[in-house]
Specification:
Distance between the termini: 26 Å
Largest sheet: 9 strands, antiparallel
Number of strands: 19
Shape: globular
Strand content: 25-35%
Radius of gyration: 23 Å
Helix content: 10-25%
Number of domains: 2
Number of helices: 6
Amino acid sequence: MKTILVSYRISLTNKVSEKQILSRFNGEDDLLNTINDYCDYIHRNIVSYTDSTGNLRTFTLDGLQTLNNDNRNLYGYFDSAYTGEKLKIKEGVTNDILFNVGERDLQSRNFFFYIDVPSGAKYAYVVIQKKSNHAIKGVLENSFNDFLKFKGFLDYRVKLEYAPDYFLLNRMLEFGDLKEIKLIRKALFSTFEEQLLSEGTPNPGVFERILRFNSDSLTVDYKNVLYRLYRERYLDYQQVQVFNESFDEVSFVLSLDSRDKTFYVKDKSKIRSNIDVTSLVEYSDGEPTLESLIRVSVEIIRSSNSSSGDSDSVAA
């Protein structure tokens, strides 16, 4: 079974959408302590809700979290459960039925999580283990915002978005193959001549210049340029400069271990930060060990911080 981790970036805004310094988001309160209080709360008060298919779901903690004040992180295991499926638990050798699971019985899975809240930064990071049939992002974001209101922080709202995936990008650039680059302009000109010369009056439409590579292509220089472009941070109105030309977006496809991944230079939130760490963690009784999950999570967050300049370094 594969071990997949997903990384998210956390921000907190006030009622006028200003991002807050998380270690003193209202001038005095520390988001790290607030997250720790939230974990205590959902451990005592299970979050129950109905999903889009009408099935009951619950969200809580599997045991208590561990808080590290010195290094400003906390970690543990979420517990997510859902109803709606019948199944049978059988003995592996005899095939005898050990237990029947009914439609109203909760089927529960636990999920490792690791959260880092750097001091003086506007972004924190959470790494969560991914498992099938259990979506965590929505219930985590919604229940935490409900908790903020419950605690009296009525003017503040937390947002989770996929973190820029520098950990995966670095691995795929070093060990993978570059398959495609798209240079994208969100406008078309009136004629072929104008389009090729990039001159004239723009019209609605999308123009894409596509470069495709095979296994024999020389791609080192392309990879270096793409890495530099991806590390830049762009405002909505800014274009991506590729030497003497400007584009509204640049995307590229990397392939590693028979898996393709598309990266976007400007809108980095388009990519889901699903990171296969199966070969990077240790196992005990078929499950990844807590120590190795923490170690890899720190590497993922450190890679994001050092490449994007969002916040300080992290420590285990």
